[in-house]
Amino acid sequence: MLSLVSVHKSFQPSRSLGLEIASIWRRRKEGQAGRVQAVKGLDLAVRDGEVLGLVGESGSGKSTLGRLMCGLYRPDQGQVLFRERDLWTLDKKEMKGFRAQVQLMFQDPASSLNPRLTAGQALSEGLIVHGIGSRASRGEKVIRLMEEVGLSPELSRRYPHQFSGGQRQRLCLARALSLDPALLIADEPASALDVSIQAQIINLLLDLKAQRGLTMVLISHDLALVCLMADRLAVMYGGLLMEVFPRPMLGQVDHHPYVKALWASVDSTSRSGLILDGEPPDPQNPPPGCPFQPRCPEAGDACRQKPPPMVPAGPGRSCACHMRV
User: Fold this and answer.
1) Which 8-state DSSP code applies to residue 138?
2) What is the reported pTM?
3) Does domain 2-324 sit in CATH 3.40.50.300?
């Protein structure tokens, strides 16, 4: 359904005047670009009907990748292909159609909702923009959407601040579903919720996938949560993919050391015993070679010299590790 081909994305961080002058001086002296490299030459495909779990620590580039997928960010290099068409070659009408087909649930439901719009108005907004239905039919659809995500239609006149965290997340989900998308990208859909509410949201997403036949990309730092839903897992670190594999393979193969560490953190029966030291890499000043090498217990000379290529490592599995080529 959707493919990313050699996609790069970087950002110029905002700075104070003093830091900006220091950065300019350092770039002149050391030849550094000073930009934050969020995604670095990444290749990934989302298949029709699957749930793809995108996992990694904070700062690994997951949310940036999600926004590239739905066209909120334009890649510096590479292509984003939706049904084999380059997203950024579409004309205005075609792009509008694409935006109806691919919807994003933002990481923070509170800040993604307009505080001046009631729940009903928020759910109607997309329908109005895309010219779908009459005023009466839009009102009926708002009621159906709220019921579908477990919200009482009586709440449609409330404003976002009058909802709980779980209710706001349900409202954001209903808004994303209002245009009947083919692909739903859910960015940390349960990270700010209580455990019991997390389970409700995950069960709701599973039910909606079965009922609507949705293709989904589930973005999270929580490997255990993603495993409840995903058909395939894609693990990111430092703006690169470390490994992509079917979920049943988890813990059954010789994974990338980073995947081993993630798995050991959630599986009490794991024998890897790998506990990571240090912090994720600074995206503005990344280490040479593989971004994981400063924390990797298996790192060798090759790991410190160049990033490892993503190569096939079995049926449906790819891995980027010099020690496993």
Assistant:
1) H
2) 0.85
3) yes
